[in-house]
Design brief:
The structure is a homodimer of 472-residue chains. By secondary structure, the first copy, chain A, is α/β, with parallel strands linked by helices. Chain A has 18 helices and 19 strands.
């Protein structure tokens, strides 16, 4: 439900959503396929150190813990109330949570506004707002943080720790991101499913992300904004310090209906231009596809903004260079020729390629490129004062030593990191490239399996650079 | 160099490029980092059963095989001459190949037209055409086929066997595809690097692909077409039987120069619309990014064309459904509501979802969906006569049994395969989804990790359906 700006009492209490000392799980179940069991199992398995109080009127124990009949029977204070009971019981649980002076309510239960029960949902919101009990959800998957060993919801595993905070209305997409985190070294600081966002909204978690020391980039997956003004305010407050990425779905004709059916998100009367305008005002970086969402968020989490258009691409694959330069132009940031960026560099870089290489930009050091040639070319490009950012690509030919080139890339990155220029890698191929990507990401270098993904990432860094310029 | 149509003597001889009984490697090297060594090593390692004749005037043996001073010293006939000597020696080798009555010449050597030596390259072409010795290259990586255990070039490994023939001007991109083949279960029938295509052109390999029993889809990566008429003719001959996918690069301002520097491809005076027109005349399916190239080619290799617009999407993730329906509309094939496709189906499918599911289309059977619910929904959708194709998505929530759903999907696909409707899957997440994708692909079901990729694949199948309709 609409808010005008991020509310202070909500932002203050969000620490109880991600770092509570005690949790009551209302609707705790003895059956291991049930949400009310999975939550407790997930908390324990991932190393939650606080107290867990299962609430179940018909059980003595759940997952080995003593169960309570109601919230009010718990003898100690409770920070977070996690609710997984049928929709018609939720109101009663919230009343008990208020009586118990809980700090935060999270409602996993579905079947509210998204199936037409808008009034029921609104009554919960109004009740919670009146009593200043922030409510997250309903209809959500959960939340967590790998830094806090906190996994609260029906979530199979934590992501690896890293720079991206993900705020998502979709549970499934959030879970997909957590899976990708492990298999692709996509590091996250915290994650939260907002579901129907009856009360707590994007704006408040964005401000929380701004204050969170682990978060370097905030990624928002949006099915509909009830409170565009609050989103804009939260972003404008955050963006000078940390970039915000926005993926908005539900804009297509059928998507408008699907977004309502999914998270009760209202999209009637809005269109892509409407959201373009919001994101522009907010200074958020809009992306189009799920892959781009992950790729751009990682780059912004790991690298500084790109302060100018002079990107140099170094590759041992002419084809990868072509895919990249076409894509740079297609998405509005054409590469410039190396001789026009730095004539000296275009001469010097010749030393690191065979006769049939090309210093054009993409700089094609050719399929025969050795680690020494990569080192020389990277060294020259990174230190040149006319170069704003470097994109380096490895294609494993029969003579390419991929691990050695990866080590060189890391060495050169570390050497010139102080200059504050973005460095991105593309490793296009099979198993050895996947390993290369994993290692590079672990060293803070965003790396991708295709040319177009790495270009999207670099252009995302430029967009952030331009947003910061505009802010002065 | 330009040809007007695929030449019969060339097409006939291409079997010696991919299935020769004997190969001479001119420029065979004793040093294991050299191309002239890698070729022989690769042939042996991958199980080539024919004869290999290393040619090296200064060696007695290469890789354990007796070496010959020149081609003419080889006592037996030679089908394929693989040339990896410096550019200025190539003409002499070709003269010997003609004298030796070789069936096919492949020139790996670089530094011809792409660095300004157009005359030298043209003289080779003219010589070979005069003597009807087809020449592949120069400036290429090699070729092979997993069905024939044939790996000829500087290629680290063979792809897994499968339906896609890949004809690529870029060696690095081709190698990347081979790597992806193993890690993503992307099956290939044969592959060929064309390089500068001084003589043998796309057209001839397309016709070869049409005749090749393992090939179900022909994927062409193009940096420039010297012979658009021949490409169109070859495609028009092939497309009624097998689809052709086209990725054209080098269209950007800097790409025009980069494509020339890479494979001497001429793009001056052409633009995207020029190539749109060629591909439309050819009946080839144009794609934009490398990922789309792989994704669409695999779908066309594994599935029948989509004969109408009535696609039903079944998902347990509302978010994945939203990404998909927005993308369907974005790329010009909006989903229709299920009730408008088949009112009965929209009622029946309700039985396989909870109250908060949605039969809209995407059909959201919700995050709690069991394998039985997937089975029911798939069964209803696939057998409905109004449905032209089915897209099914799995998002691993804490209660999703991914392997069981995969088995159900395979069972339903096998059951209804006879109806000739495309079936595509999306498995969005981490390690278990990667395994799911590998298994589904091994069973002939194109599966992808994101909604947008699976939509691109489905739309590719529709494009082929429309091309076939147009051909009557």
């Amino acid at each position: 439900m609409k808010i005008d700006a991020p509310r202070e009492y909500v932002v203050d209490n969000l620490k109880y959503a991600l770092n509570p000392s005690s949790i009551a799980v209302v609707g705790a179940s003895r059956y291991d396929a049930k949400v009310g069991y999975k939550v407790i199992e997930g908390l324990s398995r991932c190393g939650y150190k606080g107290k867990i109080y299962p609430v179940n009127p018909r059980a003595d124990k759940v997952h080995g813990l003593p169960a309570y009949k109601t919230l009010l029977d718990i003898p100690e204070p409770v920070d977070l109330v996690f609710v997984a009971v049928p929709a018609f019981l939720v109101k009663m649980v919230l009343e008990q949570a208020v009586a118990k002076k809980a700090k935060m309510a999270v409602i996993a239960t579905s079947a509210f506004k998204e199936i037409g029960r808008g009034e029921l949902q609104d009554s919960l919101t109004n009740y919670c707002r009146k009593h200043k009990l922030p409510l997250i959800g309903p209809n959500l998957v959960g939340m967590g943080s790998p830094y806090l060993n906190f996994n609260c919801g029906f979530i199979p595993y934590l992501p690896i720790p890293g720079p991206v905070a993900m705020i998502s209305q979709s549970g499934a997409n959030l879970l997909a991101a957590l899976g990708t985190s492990k298999t692709q070294n996509f590091g996250m600081s915290f994650f939260i499913g907002l579901g129907n966002k009856a009360d707590v909204d994007f704006a408040e978690f964005i401000v929380y992300g701004k204050n969170d020391p682990y978060t370097k980039c905030i990624a928002t997956y949006i099915e509909g904004l009830d409170s565009p003004e609050a989103y804009i305010k939260a972003c404008r407050e955050t963006v000078p310090e940390k970039p915000v990425v926005a993926l908005k779905v539900g804009g297509s004709k059928i998507g408008v209906k699907a977004a309502f059916a999914h998270t009760a998100s209202e999209n009637v009367g809005t269109d892509d231009a409407y959201y373009d305008d919001i994101f522009e005002k907010a200074g958020a970086i809009r992306v189009t596809t799920w892959q781009e969402f992950l790729d751009v968020a990682l780059a912004l989490g790991q690298q500084p903004p790109l302060k100018g258009d002079n990107v140099v691409m170094i590759t041992n694959g002419g084809g990868s260079g072509l895919l990249a330069c076409d894509h740079f132009e297609r998405i509005g940031m054409p590469l410039r020729e190396l001789k026009d960026i730095s004539f000296m560099l275009s001469l010097k870089i010749r030393a690191y390629m065979p006769m049939f290489g090309s210093p054009l930009n993409p700089v094609d050091i050719s399929g025969t490129a050795s680690p020494v040639q990569y080192k020389g070319a990277l060294h020259q490009a990174m230190r040149d004062s006319s170069v704003d950012g470097v994109l380096c690509s490895i294609c494993p030919t029969a003579v390419t030593n991929v691990p050695a080139v990866v080590d060189i890339a890391i060495e050169m990155y570390e050497t010139y990191k102080y200059l504050g220029k973005p460095f991105i890698m593309e490793c296009q191929g099979g198993a050895e490239c996947h390993e290369a990507i994993m290692k590079l990401r672990a060293h803070g270098i965003p790396a991708y399996p295709t040319a177009e993904q790495s270009v999207n990432a670099m252009v995302g860094l430029r967009k952030y650079g331009k947003i910061l310029e505009k802010l002065g």
